[in-house]
Structure formats: structure tokens, C-alpha cells
Amino acid sequence: MTDVxxxxxxxxxxxxxxxxxxxxxxxxxVIASLGSLQSTRLLWFSAGLSYAAxxxxxxxxxxxxxxx
Length: 68
Description:
mainly alpha
């Protein structure tokens, strides 16, 4: 029998932070579209949040204590 443990608290925390960043990125995209895209700052901000979310999600799998 193989002992398979679940993800550690660090990886779950990173994944939760990634989810929060993705929600914030989506919210900033909606706000930017409601403002008729008068400025591209919110679009870049949304893209940055989404990029950070992807990095955190990958780190939650790669770091020790992540998926086994």
C-alpha cells in the first residue's frame, strides 16, 4: 500500500491566493470595460493579476508539500 498524503497547507494557501488574484483580475477587467476602456491601465493591471495568479498556481504544485 502506498501512503498518499494530501497537499500541504502552504500549497493550499498559494492556490487560494492564486484564486483570489484571478477573481481580482476579472473584477478589474469588468471595471475597465464599464469605463469604456478610456485607459489601458486597468487592462494591464488585470493582466498582471492574472499572470501572478498563474505563477502562484504553478508554485503551489511545484514547491515541496505540493502535489505528490
